[in-house]
Structure formats: C-alpha cells, structure tokens
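Suppose a colleague, Dr. K., hands you the sequence of a protein chain of 240 amino acids and asks what its three-dimensional shape might be. Before reaching for any lab equipment, you can write down a predicted structure in token form. Begin with the sequence itself:
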Amino acid sequence: MPRILIVEDERHLAEGLRFNLEAESHIAEVVETGEAALARLGEEPPFDAVVLDVMLPGIDGFAVATELRKQGQFVPVLMLTARGAPQDVLRGFAAGADDYLAKPFDLDILIARVHGLLRRATWTRLAASQQGNGNQAASDVYTFADKSIDFDRLEVHHGTDVLQLTAMEAKLLKYLIQHEGRIVSRKAILEDVWAVHEDTDTRAIDNFIVRLRRYLEDDPSTPKHLLTVRGIGYRFVSAP
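The predicted structure, expressed as tokens, is then:
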C-alpha cells in the first residue's frame, strides 16, 4: 500500500485528505509543520509521495521541498498553493515540486494528481530494476557528447557521475531536446512545459536553465549546448 505524507496545518483539511486517501487504499499520515515533515521524511520506512502545503507555520513548503532535494530525497511532491499565481507555481517547481494544485481544489483532482505521481515513481523504480537486472527493454534515454539523459529514471550520466533531475527539470530538458536546433521562446516554455498562461516574470525559467547547465555543460559559464538567444529564449544543440 502506498505511503503518503500530508503536510498541512489546517486540521479539517488535513484529516479530510487523510480519510479520502485511506479510502483509496493508501496509508496516509499527517504532520502540521515543515520541520515535522523533514524529520518524518528522514525516517524509515520511506514515503511514496508527499502532499505539501506552501503556507505552514515555521519553514514553508518551498523551503521543505528545497531541503529535501538538497538531501538527495526525490520523493514525489504535490504542492498546494493558496493562490495558484504563476510566480508561486514556478517557485514551487524551482524548489523541486513535481506537481501543484491551487486551493480551493476538487478532491477528485487531487487524488488523480497523487495517483499520477505514484505511477511515475513506480515507472522510475521499474526502469531502475530492469536496468539493474541487465534487462535491455527500451527506455527513454537521450545521448549526446559524452553524456546521457535517462528520462525514465530522471538521471544525467556523465562517465561514472550520476546526477538526479527533478520531474520539472527533466520535462524542460526533454522539451528543449525535442526542439533541437530551434529557438524556443520563454512564453512557449511557460505554456507548454508548466501550463502557465498568464504574464509572469520569466526569471524562474532562467534559473532552471542555470541549473541544467550545471548538469550538462563542461563549463556552465560558457555553454555549448543550452544556448541563450537574447531577448527571445533558448536553443539546444547536441553538437556545437
């Protein structure tokens, strides 16, 4: 049975989520603060997904997600935002969230989003298991220069180094690769990758690109693969 941690300080909402997730045959546990969430997620057995509210007493949900990723924990995170403003959404993704939902939300939508995260985590574990057992089943891997990107496992491989991607980092990288050689505007990235259709500050995209360059470029200060097209957006080239 999947284990889900609910991080929510509104008691009625938290208990309602717990009740409905347990009705879906999940094991659900509630904590009310970011500090308690980090402590609980550092214990065994591990959780399969986290439903994480942004507005918490003490450290907020953004800080919790950021700290988890710094610790190398890539448990799928569904972030709950109070307003669903584009900047909040992008900030959540930048912190390492895998998905978001704005309050107030439809319970059926939340459960569907949680199920989506659990399926993604299962596919990632299955891909890792198949490769670990020498199974050569087809996987979603892109290779260029001396690096390879495994989109099933959310990993960048460079020699013996393995770097973990968040789901949103992988989604943006895959989008750029699919448009290789073409200029991709910041507006297109907002709409096609993050489904944000309102005018918003695009610096969040720039921050994502900076992180991806650290993974892919031999010298991130002089990129050869993730190129900036001034005033427009970005362009990916596999062979500079």
